[in-house]
Design a protein that fits this description.
- The protein is mainly alpha-helical and 560 residues long.
- Helices cover 73% and strands 1% of the residues.
- It has 24 helices and 4 strands.
- The strands form 2 sheets. The protein has a two-stranded antiparallel sheet. A two-stranded antiparallel ribbon has the order 3-4.
- The radius of gyration is 25 Å and the shape is globular.
């Protein structure tokens, strides 16, 4: 095929075919499951008692409680993002520049530390530093020292930072591999070394990566519901206010919940587009012809590096260890009995509900995973190989559930699909849709990045031999894209089985997943049973990661 023909092919200047139909169909689907719910939220926010009204927005902006909640959420979002970036950058710098024992295991364990819902971390720190926590009681009884409280803003920042550091760390480890050692040598020749070089020379080169990871952390922290709910102790946030308005004990106010959701949607989308704009202006390609080689430090400095890295690892994994131990502790009326008394009763008490929840987690999760992988492959293919206005719109629509907080998506789905013409709330269908579109962007991004490096000549050769376009995609392109698809699918799977906020308004007992069951148990203050349920969830997520390493190319997929 000539250069002009290839160029036309890439611009999508071809006759309508199966990809045109797929593009049109998927765009219509996203209009139904993304745009329509967003429009319904907007309509509900300005519709009160059967008439158009701005009352909900007026109430928000004139009531200090609600504006304070917005300020608190922004403080949490930016605070956690800054703290996570500092910690992740230091870890990535040390892991890249210096030899660290157990480097591969450390990376896997750092990833494993985020593979549980944030509220499990909050629950664990309550067991450690709560009013009757293990550390609190030990310091009080033996050293007569009052431990710092885990409740309030400091606790929220600590829990979410430990939970979300791996997100930026993963991005940064990949970006550090693109830095050529000549950049470091040039800086060193000008007298810029050590931390000064890391922050003044290398950090500006990693701005696009930093912004991408920071956006994800900000959205997760800003929209987190479970952590402030458990350890906030009255620290009001936007997700808390949305949940309260939608599920009030005395009465509900869906117009106000929708108005709060609209404010959150606008705010997160503005931050997203600002991030894209800044990243686009700072975007450039780097190719490490001579990648950085980790060097061996002398004894004392090497020990300090290991203390920093392993110290962080212990702190980040401590909540997981606490959950496991607490699952075996003896309880009375749901509360732990003082002393180390161990039992299997918590697992026995959990057995009646846990079987159904595990089944739902796998059935709904795997179904959502299959759907998102298939759709992600098609979306990635048509946006890269068939760029046109419709496909660009489709690509943008796939990012909306990635940016908009899960609790808001849950509200939008509840408003849209609770009645005619599509009464889906409470069904397995809406759960699958919510889980799939929420986590699809991971697979789309990883697949799209790899597809951009695959020459169209491979497809042309297959089609010249008589293969259809669909068969070429399935038999030729998909195997080439397997690493990107697999890596994105694994991250999607792990986040699917720990999802809470998106499904909080959509489930019934028949569709309750393990994360939802754990949250309900924690709210009922059945701490031992919650520990048993959380341990089972942790085992499932860690086994998922372990099985990944055993599949062909698994270790490569885990490299960050």
């Amino acid at each position: 095929m000539s250069t002009a023909a290839v160029s036309a092919h890439r611009r999508g200047m071809t006759k309508p075919d199966v990809w045109t139909g797929a593009s049109t169909l998927l765009t219509l689907v996203y209009l139904v499951v993304v745009v329509w719910p967003m429009v319904m939220v907007l309509r509900q926010s300005v519709w009160s008692d059967g008439a158009f009204a701005w009352d909900s927005f007026t109430t928000f902006f004139t009531t200090k409680l609600y504006t304070t909640a917005l300020g608190h959420s922004l403080l949490i979002g930016f605070g956690v993002t800054i703290l996570s970036l500092i910690v992740a950058y230091i870890l990535a710098y040390l892991m890249t520049m210096f030899k660290v024992r157990g480097r591969g295991a450390i990376q896997v364990l750092i990833l494993a530390s985020m593979m549980s819902p944030p509220f499990i971390g909050a629950y664990s720190w309550i067991l450690l530093l709560g009013n009757n926590g293990v550390i609190t009681q030990t310091l009080r009884n033996f050293l007569h020292i009052q431990a710092p409280s885990i409740y309030g803003l400091p606790g929220i920042l600590i829990v979410l930072t430990l939970q979300l550091v791996p997100l930026i760390f993963t991005y940064l480890m990949g970006a550090w591999r693109t830095v050529d050692v000549s950049v470091l040598e040039a800086a060193e020749s000008m007298g810029c070394t050590g931390a000064k070089r890391a922050f003044r020379v290398v950090l500006p080169l990693l701005v696009p990566t930093v912004l991408a990871g920071s956006l994800l952390v900000f959205v997760r922290a800003f929209a987190d519901f479970g952590t402030p709910m458990l350890i906030g102790r009255g620290y009001q946030t936007m997700p808390y206010q949305i949940y309260g308005a939608a599920t009030g004990e005395v009465s509900t106010n869906m117009s106000f919940a929708a108005a709060l959701s609209v404010i959150v949607i606008v705010l997160t989308l503005v931050i997203f587009f600002v991030q894209r704009f800044v990243a686009g202006r700072r975007s450039f390609a780097m190719n490490a012809l001579r990648p950085i080689q980790a060097k061996q430090l002398p004894g004392g400095r090497s020990a300090l590096v290991h203390v920093i890295i392993y110290g962080y690892l212990v702190i980040s994994l401590l909540p997981l260890l606490v959950v496991i131990i607490s699952s075996f502790r003896l309880t009375r009326m749901g509360q732990f009995i003082p002393g180390l008394h161990f039992t299997l009763n918590n697992y026995i008490n959990a057995s009646s509900d846990i079987t159904r929840a595990i089944k739902n987690t796998f059935v709904l999760g795997l179904t959502a995973l299959v759907v998102l992988v298939v759709v992600a492959i098609v979306v990635s293919y048509i946006t890269v190989r068939r760029p046109n206005p419709i496909n660009r719109v489709l690509d943008a629509l796939t990012m909306v559930p990635y940016v908009v907080p899960g609790l808001v998506i849950g509200i939008a789905f509840m408003l849209t699909f609770s009645g005619a013409p599509l009464p889906l709330t409470g069904t397995a269908v809406i759960m699958v849709i919510a889980l799939a579109i929420r986590r699809m962007s991971y697979t789309i991004r990883s697949t799209t990045a790899l597809l951009g490096q695959v020459s169209p000549s491979i497809e042309e050769a297959a089609q010249s031999l008589g293969a259809s376009k669909v068969k070429t995609l399935v038999r030729v392109i998909v195997p080439v894209l397997a690493p990107g698809i697999f890596a994105g699918a694994v991250l999607s799977w792990v986040t699917i089985i720990t999802e809470l906020s998106t499904t909080l308004f959509l489930y019934t007992n028949a569709t309750q997943t393990l994360s939802l069951l754990i949250y309900a148990t924690v709210v009922r203050a059945q701490l031992g049973t919650a520990g048993a349920e959380a341990t089972i969830l942790l085992v499932i997520t860690i086994l998922s990661l372990f099985l990944l390493t055993k599949l062909p190319g698994g270790n490569d997929n885990l490299k960050v």
